Amino acid sequence: MNILVEEILRSNSVIAIVGISPDENRESHIVGKYLQTWGYKIVPINPKSEVVLGEHCYPTLESCPIQIDIVNIFRRNEFVPPIVDSAIKIKANVIWMQLGVFDETSSKKAIENGLAVVMDKCIAREHSRLMGLQH
Question: Is residue 133 over pLDDT 80?
């Protein structure tokens, strides 16, 4: 798994954050800001916001004109299946479900459609660990 995570983080640069919050105290916002500081292009996905972290916010993955590499999911488990379906439609490379987010059925569907999947892991923590920032 570590080789997969490292390869994902090295070879993908555009990350859609589904469920990102404009509230700077929320984990999704903190993770988005962290990813920006490391040079990743973040694409906020939240139908209730217009701009998050200085980036135009899109209501859905399908409404975004930018090619997405990683779909980072900050939504409850019951919302994962339609997000995975959207990620398949837009031809993303990776589904990344944040800590506490997992769906085996959706994971299998994504893999069957050629996407890599990471479940129940924080993308910022994994990046930090791989960069040697955590002890």
Answer: no
